């Protein structure tokens, strides 16, 4: 399985490089270093949320509320900024993360304590969180002129030739790589997804671990909520609507098994980059946005087939073949 995972990541990496080279034949400027950095920066929110979704999927769950948590947290951060424009950005970021952690904990509570299936819980909270945005904002938008300059500037600030949005994504990648590979909690995500019954006998609390996975997902969604709203300088009810589908797609394309227990962080990041390259490349070479959907859908189908084949188990043949 480990060999397949490495091979899968290598193949996806080569596919991304090939795609970039093919696009550069139609639009040579696409391969310029500054443009590739821009593609990485545009893909940063999807990378962060793909990591959030990956942690949940590893435990045999799914979180369909990531975009709704993003939107609700973004609206809360925007409203706090309007009410307290002098509040330092570090506190805004802290508010975004804490709000996301709470929303993720709500999802985890219903999955762990109330024993409701994750897909049902997150479908419900997705609608509830969207509704809360409308209640809090009364359906109104918060636009750029209402936000403070510091609030809008953080994701765009340059540090060592890259915007802070890209650096935040890199930091998240590093931190979660350490979590998944160096800490018992990270290994328990894989253990529970791989075989929850064996995990129980090994002394792992399946429900509590799934709860923590949802908490992590909420925290990262909250962080992206602030980054998204501040980058685009607008907050409204339907912000990032449907984005949860891109997040799941990035995970599946990156080799994260929807059956749990299989996948790597670098695969999730590559899946997000793949979708980011398609999103940024097709418009500049005058290809219809509908082809973007077709290519993404085809990649998902192929990825699911590969995942199914890799996780298939051969049963014992207890019957002798007739001669």
Question: Quick summary of this structure?
Answer:
With 323 residues, the chain is an all-alpha fold. It has helices at residues 2-26, 33-58, 66-83, 89-112, 118-137, 149-153, 164-182, 184-194, 196-201, 206-232, 243-253, 265-284, 289-311; strands spanning 158-159, 162-163.
Description:
With 323 residues, the chain is mainly alpha-helical. Helix content is 73%, strand content 1%. The longest helix has 27 residues, at 206-232. The chain is globular, with a radius of gyration of 21 Å. 43% of the residues are buried.
Helix content bin? over 70%
Count of DSSP H/I helices: 13
Name the beta content range: under 5%
Q: Could you give the order of strands across the largest sheet?
A: 1-2
Shape: globular
The beta-strand count equals 2
Which class of secondary structure composition applies to the elements? mainly alpha
- Given as residue ranges, the uncertain stretches (5+ residues, pLDDT < 50) are 1-5, 313-323
Average of pLDDT: 88
Oligomer: single chain
The secondary-structure element order is HHHHHHEEHHHHHHH
* End-to-end distance: 35 Å
Main sheet properties: 2 strands, antiparallel
* Rg calculated over all Cα atoms: 21 Å
